[in-house]
Amino acid sequence: MRSLPMATFLLRRLLGAIVTLLVLSVIVYGLFYLLPTDPARMICGPRCSPQDVAAVSRAYGLDQPIYVQYWHFLAAIVAGRDYSTGPSTVHCGAPCFGYSFETGQSVDSLLLSALPVTASLTLGGAVLWTTFGVGAGIASALRRGRLADKTLTGLVLASTALPPFVLALFLILLFCAYLQWLPFPNYVSIGDDPVQWAQSLILPWATLALLQAANYARLTRTSVLETLNEDHIRTARAYGLSERRIVARHALRGALTPLVSLLAVDVGPVLGGAVFTESVFGLPGLGKLLVGSVATVDLPVVGAVALLAGAFVILANVAADLLYVAIDPRASIR
Amino acid sequence: MTNTPPVDLAPGPAKPAPPEPILSVNGLTIEFPGRGRGAETATVRAVDELSFELAPGGALGIVGESGSGKSATALALLGLHRGTPARVTGEITVDGTAIHTATDQEIRRLRGSRIAMVFQDPLSSLDPYYSVGDQIAEVYRAHTGAGRRAARDRAIEVLDRVGIAEAARRVDARPHEFSGGMRQRALIAMALACEPRVLVADEPTTALDVTVQAQILDLLSDLRADTGMALVLVTHDFGVVAAVADDVLVMKEGRAVEHGPATRILSRPEAPYTKTLISAVPRIDTPRPARGAPSTDVLLRVEQLHKHFPAPGGFALRRLPALRAVDGASLEVRRGEALGIVGESGSGKTTLARMMVSLLEPTSGRIVFDGEDLTALPERRLRPSRRDRQMVFQDPVASLNPRRTVGESVAEPLRAHGERDEQSIRRTVRQLLEKVGLETAHYDRFPHEFSGGQRQRIGIARALVLRPKLVVCDEPVSALDVTTQAQVIRLLADLREQLGLTLVFVSHDLAVVRQVSDRVVVMRHGQVVESADAETLYTNPRHPYTRTLLDAVPVPDPVLARERRAQRKTRALAQQRLEPRLT
Amino acid sequence: MRTRISTSHPRTSHPLRVTALSIAAVSVGAVLAGCSSTSSRSSASSAFSAANCKGGTLTVLEQGSLSEFDPARLYTSGGGQIPALFFRALTTRDRVPGAAGDTVVPDLATDTGEPSQNATVWTYHLKPGLKYQDGTAITSADIKYAVERTFDAQLAGGPPYLRDWLVGGDTYQGPYKDPKGLSSIETPDADTIVFHLRKSEGGFPYLAAMTQFAPVPKAKDTGTQYADNPVSSGPYQFAGYTPKKQLELVRNKYWSASTDSQRLACPDKIDIQSGLDATVINQRLAAGVGADKYAITTDTSIGPTQLAQLTGNKALASRVITGAFAETVYLAFNTKKAPFDNQLVREALSYAVDRQAVVNAVGGSSLATAATTFLPNQSALGYHPYDYFPAGASGDAAKAKQILAQAGYPNGISVTLNYENTDDDGDGPAVATALQAAYAQAGIHVKLAPTGTDSDAFRAVVGDTANEPGLSLNTWGADWPSGAPFLTPIFDGREIVQGGGNFNLAQYNDAAVNARIDQINQITDNTAAQQQWGDLDAQLGKLALTVPLYFPKNLTLFGPGVKNVYLSEWRGTYDIAVVSVK
Amino acid sequence: MSTTALTAAAEASQEPASAAPTGPRALWRTLRRDRAAMAGLVVVAALVLLALGAPLWTAIEGQNPYAYHDNLLNSALGGAPLGSFGGIGGAHWLGVEPQTGRDLFARIAYGAQVSLAVSIGATLLQVLLGVGVGLAAGLGGRFADALLGRAIDLAIAFPYLIFGIALLAVVPASFPRPVLLVVVMAVLGWGGTARISRAQTLSLRTRDYVAAARLGGSSTARIARREILPGLAAPVITYAALLLPANMVLEAGFSFLGIGVRPPTSSWGQILSTATTWYYADPTYVIVPCIVLFASVFGFVLLGEGVRKALDPRAANGSG
User: B405, B497, C510, D279 - which has most CB atoms within 10 Å?
Assistant: First the structure.
């Protein structure tokens, strides 16, 4: 296997990602154009006359052909765009996703305010699910075939059978309503109060962890068992290394490497918005932003979140590849 | 397993005061519980009542075909079956420690320090995540309690000892940055780190090219001479044994068939099995019985053929230099002859073979088959000539679709060519199966029910079903045991005779090629280095590379092997190290 | 989870679903044991003293509410709940318990307006000493400017009355494009503002309570970005704002209680959290732990699933305010479309309706009252009870079949029902399905046609006269507690809007009725006017232009530490401007 | 969930060429020894029986899923069922729905039809699309592979909820909803199967037996059909077995968001989305559908896991 220089690889993946994102944005734009709802009417309110709607349509450029609107959308991302606020004009610097039809807020600021929430949710959740999943997987592998292993396997399978919205609601009911161990989730940003931040995210994290840890436990188990069967483990044994050292230093290193890539791949979509978890826990993250803006045909927001979510998935995949190459010396970039 | 340590460690014929053996094995039996269902759960006895001894500084070669239990024996010497389902009985004593009764702790202290092991595949046997030096140092520290620095110094020292140039720099390299030969050297260095009394080498050179193999074998011999450690060499190759071992133990189905000095067994084997085995070994120094006058009619001509594999990538700004797998090769195949193509790994011989049958399209150059220029023909035009050129593949496992019966696999080309008469298809295939030495009833069986040799026969049947003019065999026997190898080679020769086939025989094994070919082509770096009729090439090679290759081939003759080693040493001193560094 | 409290922000919720006025204190007795608004009021107010209520932080838990704070774009009734904390208009609703809560009182102005020329000219004078949060004085020019900027297309979203009523309002493009301004608004001096209307509008003082009449200083106007940090004229100002998520309000030191008799402004700080799930809000209010002890909500009612928690928990039940706002959920017929051009068919559907099933579908008798009139059962709107097509609790299938046969459909009839595809507003799939099941028994086969995933998408289809479906499920609420805004858009033939945005879904146009409406609008005696509206409703009811289904009710929880909580009749729940946490 | 299945299938695709062929009979033989898989199969079979026999069971019960029963509800308490345990009794085996009084057993039985039909339909279509695209990408030229590979990336990167919500809103109401759900879910979810099929095709096409078939004169289509497709079966079946429960959850999710099947058609997601708020007033109404959904999905997961183990040679090597 021959390897490509890193820069070329990155460039190639980047170009590919841009093409994918372009297609994605075209589809999102096209679909929403097909929707029966007229955004101008939504902005204008229910008691608007057709003349009012037409005026709003003009003011927001919604009377232009779809491809012109799309072009403006793209151009603003690359070069920024000037917007009239009425009395004056503001420049929205690149990458500019425009202004929400619904709140009149700059989409960039909406994204910036939603992103930390989703990031908090994702990163904390990822830490939790990785810890639990990998821990359980290792324990299961080292106790292969015993009761602990079988119990773990069963639990792992059971948790994959739970729909996220049911799981999330049950957690709230159990811990907030019945046991009252935790206050009802109410997101507080980490800058305001780290303790409350963590407290407000415990259940969302747990939800993500329960949904994902299963996968990791199973993969860890398989991977550890497989690595323990590898030749170099036999070598380590043949050279008198202690079993603990073999597991800790040689088996886990190799077994957990593929999981790092998997983690990157999994984090991508969650970063793009864990729609159900965010909805049920009322976390004002990207997923909630998305669902809300889809319902109100807030096209600038939908377009931006879709692009961002898509970008996260794609970037996560690139990151996974890079991590794989960085961690596994045998791999080369294809 | 018995709890009483053996009182008498040296049974057997009385000899004049033999030194206390460093290794003794007595009544070793290894059984693997059968896996799977119902009737298949019978235990497999891999090693059956095996006993042998090894004097300090001695060298024992354990030879056997696959499934003979030789590797299981090697693992047992280090107690490596512990913790696995394998059941080990009998007694093994290494340097005074009874492996069969020792605690895990004792065994662990023993491993790597007094008895060390080198494995077949050096790449997978090293942890890819840590540098070679780290791994050696780790072993050293585990047994000596040395400090970090001291361990690292020791690693450099042993790497230097096994001939890794610039060991101080290479010590931090990770295994994949080493070539195959260097990896095996590194593994040997790891074994040397604690100066063990016994080194067990399990097929240490099987994965290596012939020139590298020679170097590694030389290294093992040198080390043994220098350090006085005893050597157990497990191999399927009598040539390898001849190069290194003093004594030989021949195993078959878990039992020792014959045991004695190498010189005696290799020249005057007593057991019938040993005889068969040795006679099956293709000898590079034995000329092939001459055949009829060679034809001059060219069936296939290859002119200035190139095959460059592009560096992968769609949008790359700067194209990487392409991999020139075949780089301007020209040769001709004459009607009715058997042409051998020899080369080490990476020489481009397989790529060339695949281009000959149009499985790969050449980057440039011409292929003329039976008067027709095939270059750049579209697939549709190519198809008629395809049936005249067939191939036998190296891996008998991968070349048969595991999900189809062998009969169907053989019949597939007929069906693809529009044959619809079910009766006639079955008849043709059955006849062919018989012809390659199988039974007609095998038609409805699946590939996994067959042995490697049988599968290769199926592959041959499939190649013949369309009655081709040319059959290209790509390493057809290299995955097979030596006796099977001989049978398949004989089959190919017979078929060629019967059907008037033209044969191209691609192999890394110069001895095998000599057994088969009328003419031989030597390839290196994608180019034809030398091309001559077999007799000339083997007795009077002109190109230095051909000579190096021929010198490196292990011969199952200890005396000759010793001579060769001396020769190589002189040449190596002159040439420095010529091991190419693979990426 | 249904929620059913009026919200005072535009577009995302029903702007029309705003609180109305009822003259009777609590028209419907509290159903739940120990849960009457009277008892809760007395227990809450016992320890309250307006003189000594200042301090603390009030937490507000909302589902929506925080998406828009431009006074031009807000669509509120009486200035809304949260917006009223920092926007003062010319008038406002009276924040007293009981029937008076439905009346309009002066806010920035010295009175509720002086009508002249048959109520076509309205004059207001500002109180002295009014200041913005930056200390500058509030002038009548600022109010004129504020009203003018509502005409800019980029600030669209508010109610249509300014456009329809002000002279020149139909063509004016707003001060950015037309800086000359709107000549029908005069500011003879800094304290006086005069509005010239195209026709008599006795209800102008109600309109003047909307945020469109809150002053905007021209120098601070940032157009579409004004909503991010509007200049306060009320007791609180923005301290931190993330749309749809969080708003923190702190005291505006330039506000003076001496000019504002309506807002008590007790808490020092108000922390509003939005985007919460209704269940979570109610659970947090019920638990009342930590900061939630001092929490309220302005947009979330107890849902049917939580009613059981109130029974047997007197302490909790005492923390519930029960009210209703003027709103009707009804079936609308398009009388221009067969078979609904046939009054008999409309009557058959009126007879067959199972109001019990509908009420159950939206949460049962505690949360909804079966309706047989179009005007809600509040005397502030001149409620005049009638039931011309008695269906009983569960529908009169036999009678319906008989009428259908008379109408020429002896074998039943197939109709399509369009409705909003969400149950959030109480007029979605749950009600439609209940109707379908009941109608089936009367031989009326209903095909369900969910239309749009929210009210705006639904309106876009239903409000388009040319393509209006024959039968649709709708909600209608009053912009202020009066029959005028409740009946006019629905039954005035001149209100039929072509090309989208129509609410006269029957497309009913009767010159006599139109004239009657004009006549009532000239009446300046509110009580007399409401009586007339009620009679008009009773007259229209005979035509079976709609099938009234139910009037929603609110059960609103508040935290155990919140005081001075009482029902504001206008809004159908308690008022944020008067509660205290001390 | 999708990554679970992806990785599981990737595991299954690492099949050594020497493995015994895995026909349906061999698969069944292995499965029969797997107690967990058999338990899953029993649950799945029960589910299928419940769904197929819904009209029969409800006829025996004497109910139908659409009839309202105002008289069984306590209107003042939000329309909660009268009687204990959600009104469970001889007439209503699992009680009635709050606010409507419809028979819960009938709703669940008919809901099973929707859940099963949609998830099975979607899975089949996803597999069909995925295998088609994967094969085409794997066997087509460089250009086709690049293009289709990009399409696969796109399908996987697409935020499916936006697409789902938008698509479900665009299509006219007259289009049959379950069919639409199947199509939407297939359009959203074919990427995984395609990726696996493509990878497996790329790996299989380098096998010598494919080369041999080409030498034997087989056309690309014939090679795809005779040599590649059978090799895709194991990983794809494994993937599909885990995709199916995932689709079941997704269908419930769409209904939960209010964009699933339309009333009065019953669906588990719909029941769940209203049921979850009734935990206090009517726990039976929450517990029953939750158990049914959980058991069904778990049944499929167990069965899928069994299939995976049966088809995954590495699992057979003792790691399972």
Answer: D279
